[in-house]
Amino acid sequence: MTTTTDTTIAGLFGLSLPVVQAPMAGVQGASLALAVAQAGGLGSLPAATLTPEALRHDLAALRERTGSPINVNFFCHSPPTPDAEREAAWRHLLAPYYAEFGLDPAALVAGPARTPFSHELADVLAEQPPAVVSFHFGLPASDLLERVRATGAKVLSSATTVEEARWLQAQGVDAIIAQGLEAGGHRGHFLSDDLDAQAGTFALLPQIVRAVHVPVIAAGGIADAAGVAAARALGAAGVQVGTAYLLCPEATTGPVHRQALTADAGTTTALTNLFTGRPARGITNRLMRELGAMRGDVPAFPLAAGAVSPLRGKAEATGSGDFSPLWAGQNTTGCRAVPAAEITRELARGW
Ligand SMILES: Cc1cc2nc3c(=O)[nH]c(=O)nc-3n(C[C@H](O)[C@H](O)[C@H](O)COP(=O)(O)O)c2cc1C
């Protein structure tokens, strides 16, 4: 740490360390957020799959255990219009796998709920305001955003291009997360679907730093103290790290996911839209290899998940990750099965 902390996110959010634990829906809850907060970083609670009641419960539990700042993260996609033809074609494509597992392809299964930020969720924030609220896929409608601002929370969102960073700054965000292509999980893009317009972290970060005057948080491929030092050298005000926390005991990463992260053969990742309908980076598995990781004919986000989830359930029951979204970034070298506090402190040594 240096004496210039007030220009970093440590100063902005009142943290000891300029490290944000990336919100990671599906693989963590309040325990990971708490461990990072207690270590002096910004712990994040992913709320994309939480009902208002579950969010209320988790925020109360966190508040009971720590007075440190917490980030609550929401998706803000437009809810999709179901398309029966697209859904039927998707099920037809998956039919051989359904047959392999003896599943009925006509059975309708709702995928894991991923709901955009709403007034019901804003009600919970008004009751128990977190220090920071971050969004993925842009920002919510202005009336909703106003409600978040009214709680006093600092507002963040991810940019995958310079254009998105400028747009977020114009909406008055407090800091911008520069999400490079290396990053695990969903791409946060919202102005354009053109993945070729997106760059790696250390190409994107300095361009965004030059283009905006708000603090920029580097995300994607940062896995150790040297990566943090590199981000700082390129003008970052802090870092957001996801993949490196996936093996921590406080994360809820499932057994097949943990196994894939530690496989002897090493990990190859790719962007895929097969599991949700939006591009996200995960470890390449059978479904991605056999269908092609990116397809133009999958149902819109998040509807694609519905037809895949029974296959995932059957395969995982036999210890196989062939049909699971094994979200991970390109740099898995920081993944260690040690307490999240240790990972947080190790990352911060690079600042
Ligand atoms: C398993 C996993 C789940 C993720 N889920 C979310 C999420 O719910 N919300 C979000 O804003 N970002 C999510 N991300 C993206 C992270 O915010 C961040 O951009 C990324 O983890 C940084 O790259 P790294 O994984 O290489 O550290 C997720 C990332 C991973 C690895």
TrEMBL record:
Reactions catalysed, as given in the entry: 3 propionate 3-nitronate + 3 O2 + H2O = 3 3-oxopropanoate + 2 nitrate + nitrite + H2O2 + 3 H(+)
GO MF, one example: monooxygenase activity
Cofactor(s) of this protein: FMN
InterPro entries: Aldolase_TIM, NMO
Keyword Protein biosynthesis (UniProt): no
Keywords noted in UniProt: Detoxification, Flavoprotein, FMN, Monooxygenase, Oxidoreductase
Any Pfam family hit: NMO
CDD domains assigned: NPD_like
Family from the record: Belongs to the nitronate monooxygenase family. NMO class I subfamily.
Protein name as it appears in the record: Propionate 3-nitronate monooxygenase
Source organism per UniProt: Lysobacter arvi
